Automatic annotation (TrEMBL):
Keyword annotations from UniProtKB, A to Z: Membrane, Transmembrane, Transmembrane helix
Domain of life: Bacteria
Protein name: Uncharacterized protein
Organism, scientific name: Eiseniibacteriota bacterium
Chain ranges passing through the membrane: 39-57, 126-148, 160-178, 210-235, 242-262, 302-319, 331-348, 360-379, 386-409, 501-527
Length: 531
């Protein structure tokens, strides 16, 4: 590896401003970081595939899937459910179309498989959903690869960068959302691209403006509310030439045009998003202190319990501010985006984002605040490392509960669902949000221990798929009750619906072997990156 010339003073392109230290590293380092990032993504995908649930049952998930299926056939109307009626009398999801568009290839594969599988209709539907359910496994794996590449570019050493990446992917709710068909992983990827692109363009890599443009396009297309957060992520461009804003502006224009076309197709006007009252000031009725406590520290939704390693962002942000102007601007953008999200959602009437696991609305911000976490781990301080180990263990334990038990099953078990109060009722799910003994963290682990014991004792539930099927879940009421005793993995669900055990076990064994091999490759490339 060639060492950079310590006597040279690199300059911003076309300016006399010295470039920050993290951009002066040899090109070979960036090549090695990209190779390591690639294997991190492959390994993460295989782990997410192994721990996947293979199911799509949430209201938002199902309507997004139905939107993608409708798009395959030239429409956007969906079956009635979590929908709104358009002026033409048909039903439309209130959600943006970005995720459905990106998932189209996988949905097309699932439809082809659904039509050819020699199974009863009810089971073919479940099989098709199983295929699509791995969409976010790929998106989240890509997210982790991008995160590693970004923090390496920022100057974090390879091993601390890997530690921060693993902590982001497997000690936070990011892991649970990798099992879902929700939009949070794509929102997170878009915001991270925007932050990375802004930082790299601001520091002399103008050719990478497409990264910022892609980030803005993805984040805003998937959810319009990401617009202010995406703009904050571009704060590193504040002192750059105006030309640096061209690419992000194009990405934003394309996203807004897509929203306008989609809204006209649904409601006949570009000024109706489908969120109605929720998109107005009338929906921001939660006392701010209640929302702040709820999102940050409550036993049911507090981010410090669901992602405890986020506490390392405090010393990490201080380290970034001391490292240089570029690092300081990046830290400011990441923390400002997180703070803006917390403040905004703390006043929203549905601040908790139910039903979901953990603080759903803050999940897209976790990669941003883990950039300072990476800097904290990079500091070579024994106390920080010890704290990181403890926080990682605690976060992983919480995440395993959310991965092993589907949050919807836990909500049914404790009586939170079906809902008995309006979503904007101040007492809606009050105990689960604020009473420690009723925390979903404990609820998930109680169910996980009980259900694991029942599986070990050969008392796993058996699904019949006989009777009236709920179109949202694809299951009968009896099967839904039975699954309260299930484990949320595709390789436990498959035998429960009658799939032979041998092919299921073979598929699982193959994935485990591939994950082990990919993990060894990842460690080898990270070691080379660290050399």
């Amino acid at each position: 590896m060639n060492a950079p010339d310590a006597t040279a003073t690199p300059q911003f392109a076309g300016s006399a401003t010295p470039m920050p230290s993290f951009v002066t590293s040899a090109p070979a380092i960036h090549v090695r970081a990209r190779l390591a990032a690639r294997w991190i993504g492959i390994t993460a995908f295989l782990v997410y595939a192994i721990s996947g649930g293979g199911r799509i049952v949430g209201s938002d998930e199902v309507t997004m899937l139905e939107l993608a299926r409708a798009m395959l056939h030239g429409g956007i109307a969906v079956p009635v459910g979590a929908t709104l009626d358009g002026p033409d009398g048909r039903h439309y999801t209130k959600n943006a179309a970005g995720q459905a568009v990106l998932a189209l290839p996988l949905v097309a594969v699932a439809e082809v498989a659904e039509g050819r599988l020699p199974l009863p209709v009810a089971r073919r539907v479940l099989a098709a959903r199983c295929v699509v359910s791995f969409f976010n496994a790929a998106i989240t794996a890509l997210l982790l690869a991008v995160f590693y590449r970004f923090v390496r570019f920022m100057g974090v050493r390879a091993r601390p960068a890997l530690a921060a990446t693993v902590m982001l992917g497997f000690t936070t709710p990011v892991w649970a959302y990798a099992k879902s068909f929700m939009a949070e992983p794509l929102q997170a990827l878009g915001l991270l691209f925007a932050l990375e692109g802004g930082a790299r363009v601001a520091n002399g890599e103008g050719r990478l403006g497409w990264i910022a443009a892609l980030g803005v396009l993805i984040a805003v297309s998937v959810k319009f509310a990401m617009l202010p957060l995406a703009i904050v992520c571009l704060l590193p461009l504040a002192r750059a030439r105006w030309t640096a804003w061209i690419a992000p502006a194009i990405g934003l224009a394309v996203a807004l045009a897509g929203h306008a076309i989609y809204d006209v197709m649904r409601f006949g006007t570009p000024f109706e998003t489908g969120y109605g009252r929720q998109a107005s000031a009338a929906a921001f009725t939660t006392p701010i202190l209640t929302g702040l406590y709820g999102l940050l520290a409550s036993s049911g939704k507090g981010v410090i319990w669901f992602a405890p390693a986020i506490l390392l962002a405090i010393p990490g942000a201080i380290a970034m501010r001391r490292a240089g102007a570029a690092e300081a601007r990046t830290a400011t953008a990441a923390i400002a985006a997180f703070a803006l999200a917390v403040l905004g959602y703390s006043m929203f009437e549905h601040w908790a984002g139910d039903g979901s696991f953990g603080p759903r609305y803050l999940v897209p911000l976790l990669p941003l605040v883990f950039v300072p976490v990476a800097f904290a781990l990079n500091a070579r301080r024994a106390l920080t490392r010890a704290a990181a180990v403890l926080l990682a263990i605690a976060g992983c334990a919480v995440a395993i509960g959310g991965v092993g038990i589907y949050f919807g099953a836990e909500m049914r078990e404790v009586g939170d669902y079906p809902y008995t109060r309006a979503l904007n009722d101040p007492l809606f799910m009050h105990e689960s949000h604020f009473v420690p003994a009723r925390s979903p963290i404990l609820g998930h682990w109680r169910m996980l221990i009980r259900n694991a014991r029942e599986h070990i004792a050969h008392r796993a539930p058996r699904l019949t798929t006989r009777g009236a099927v709920d179109p949202r879940t694809g299951l009968t009421p009896d099967d839904q009750r039975a699954l309260l005793h299930g484990l949320d993995f595709w390789w436990t669900y498959a035998p429960e619906v009658g799939v032979p055990l041998v092919p299921v076990a073979a598929a699982l064994a193959l994935l485990l072997l591939l994950a082990a091999w990919a993990g060894l490759q990842m460690l080898a490339f990270v070691a080379e990156d660290a050399a």
